[in-house]
Amino acid sequence: xxxxxxxxxxxxxxxxxxxxxxEAVLNERGVTASLDDIAKAAGVGNATLYRHFATRETLIxxxxxxRIRTLCESAERLSVAAGEPGASLLVWLRQVVVHITESRVxxxxxxxxxxxxxxxxxxxxxxxxxxxxxxxxxxxxxxQDAGAVRADLDVLELMALTTAVARAGNPSQAERFxxxxxxxxxxxxxxxxxx
Length: 195
Prior knowledge:
This is TetR/AcrR family transcriptional regulator. The protein is an all-alpha fold and about 200 residues long. Helix content is about 70%, strand content about 0%. The chain is elongated. The protein starts with 8 loop residues before the first helix and ends in a 10-residue tail after the last helix. The mean pLDDT is about 85.
């Protein structure tokens, strides 16, 4: 993820309005939402939209990139915040589940715009996954050091399990599935040898 370039205040406000409108319109209308609809929802003209995002693909990628950046920033804040490390990890994993469940249509729109040969995953997806794993590592390490998460569970495994939970069933079930998953990643005390 490349940090966004510096912009004039009005240009930055327009860009933020376009990103928010794009996410809302895509979630409401799906992959067929038009750029005209997005510009209208943002309250800007088409020329302003194209000045910021030359193609539909770059707009959708920017929306998704912003969502990933927000998740990574949250993980960073939680990993240095005072508080119980297991609880901090849980807060963030819930944010990840919400992100995945709320980004289904956006992800479909992104993939529809990217025509990679032979079903190959676009490189941006690998970059986003890497950013998430790097952001999660300190949270997981703190939770493991505190004994709140199994020591034999690595970041990639935890993120794969969390992603699977978020994608299983319908979005309303994701919270419950995450609770069940987290019961399985908490270390168990050794059984009493006297029993």
